[in-house]
Inverse folding.
């Protein structure tokens, strides 16, 4: 067989086998056994495995389309777009696969219980997450009579905690969270249709 025929054979038979094969994507799960040993896997089979790292979703919902999603859900829930942008910036820095140490997930960092309450089935889907986070933010604003600082504190540490303390809880994390969101809120009010 001549070299030309070999190249042709490879082109016709072998190359098409690889076309369209996408690299495998896998979430990483973590399990801590009774001895305190931490195990990681991408295929949880037994025991209590918790999602540790979400595989980055396809780039179909890039930053530019976030503006449309934010606009739609902010408008539906009567929220300022700049506020939703600021919460996303502080919660996840616009990284849809973010999972916190406490298990909060996605762009607006919904904990699984809150996501279920808000009918968010895939917290890593930007549209679902922003819808759920916007709805929760609206609930917190309604609960605390449009008091932005209390609503943000409740978004961060829970409404029960804010009620118990009768204001922003004395937690450094929560106090810093409220300050940071307000700082980005001011930025987004000035910057308009942009993401930082």
């Amino acid at each position: 067989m001549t070299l030309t025929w070999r190249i042709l054979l490879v082109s016709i038979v072998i190359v098409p086998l690889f076309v369209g094969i996408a690299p495998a994507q896998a979430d990483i799960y973590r399990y801590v056994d009774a001895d305190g040993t931490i195990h990681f896997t991408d295929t949880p089979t037994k025991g209590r495995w918790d999602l540790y790292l979400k595989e980055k979703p396809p780039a179909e919902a890039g930053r530019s389309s976030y503006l449309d999603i934010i606009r739609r859900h902010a408008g539906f829930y009567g929220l300022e777009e700049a506020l939703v942008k600021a919460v996303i910036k502080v919660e996840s820095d616009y990284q849809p696969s973010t999972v916190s140490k406490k298990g909060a997930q996605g762009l607006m960092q919904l904990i699984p219980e809150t996501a279920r309450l808000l009918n968010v089935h895939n917290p890593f889907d930007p549209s679902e997450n922003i819808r759920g986070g916007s709805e929760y933010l609206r609930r917190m604003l309604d609960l605390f009579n449009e008091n932005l600082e209390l609503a943000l504190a409740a978004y961060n540490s829970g409404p029960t905690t804010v009620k118990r303390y009768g204001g922003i809880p004395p937690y450094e994390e929560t106090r810093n969270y409220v300050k940071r969101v307000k700082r980005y809120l001011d930025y987004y009010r000035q910057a308009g249709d942009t993401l930082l």
In short: The chain has eight helices and three strands. The mean pLDDT is 82.
